[in-house]
Specification:
The structure is a single chain. The chain is built from six helices and six strands, in the order βαβαβαβαβααβ. The protein has a four-stranded parallel sheet with strand order 3-4-5-6, with helices on both faces.
Length: 214
């Protein structure tokens, strides 16, 4: 397993150590800044070089920030579109040849707000909606040798720092789900494993949202 990180070196290394403790020499971390155009090809090639193959690409890197209309800047637009839409496209393109050889697959992490926009997060919602359509477009273009699917999580982690939600807002979000709960991170991982292993599924987005969109 290759774990990519931008700023979170310590968190990435902690995960790598845990994975290698369970299975020796099974994971490494690679740094890349996906805002840089030359990072995509290098990240994929560095990943392939470790084990001479690539089976699954999971596009999980994301920026999440409020952009209320009236305060949106071009930097907001570029930052949110780069991480949530541009990077998955160019990483998928860079990985396509290796994935054809392994008959592998691509899993994009979208968001339930790709389908239902979130107030004050118009740029983020737009980027994730683009990623949802990119998933379908790549599924058509890369078939029959590469499968492409997506996972649309509901609320998994609360925003931190200045963007943190009040307890009242958190409770309102949880109350809007059928299961009255946050989504467990393990359920996202299990959904990814399901998509990686089932060879008759492509072009689909699976919502793992505790029933938020029903």
């Amino acid at each position: 397993m290759i774990v990519h990180y931008r700023h979170s070196k310590q968190d990435a290394q902690k995960l790598i150590d845990a994975l290698n403790h369970r299975r020796n020499n099974s994971a490494i971390a690679i740094h890349a800044d996906l805002n840089q155009q030359n990072a995509y090809e290098k990240l994929i090639q560095d990943s392939i070089a470790r084990w001479n193959r690539l089976d699954v690409l999971i596009n999980n890197a994301s920026t999440f920030a409020p952009t209320p209309v009236g305060n949106i800047t071009e930097n907001d637009w570029h930052d949110l579109l780069n991480s949530n839409l541009k990077a998955p496209l160019f990483l998928s393109q860079a990985a396509a040849n290796a994935l054809r050889e392994s008959r592998g697959n691509i899993i994009n992490i979208t968001d339930i707000h790709a389908k239902t926009p979130m107030k004050n997060y118009s740029v983020y919602s737009c980027a994730k909606a683009g990623l949802r359509m990119l998933t379908r477009s790549l599924a058509v273009e890369l078939a029959p040798t590469i499968r492409v699917n997506a996972i649309a999580p509901g609320n998994v982690l609360w925003p931190e720092g200045k963007n943190n939600y009040s307890e009242e807002k958190k409770q309102a979000i949880l109350s809007a789900t059928l299961l009255q709960k946050q989504v467990d991170l393990n359920d996202i991982a299990k959904a990814a494993l399901f998509l990686a292993e089932h060879h008759s599924i492509t072009g689909q987005t699976i919502a793992v949202d505790a029933g938020r969109l029903v």
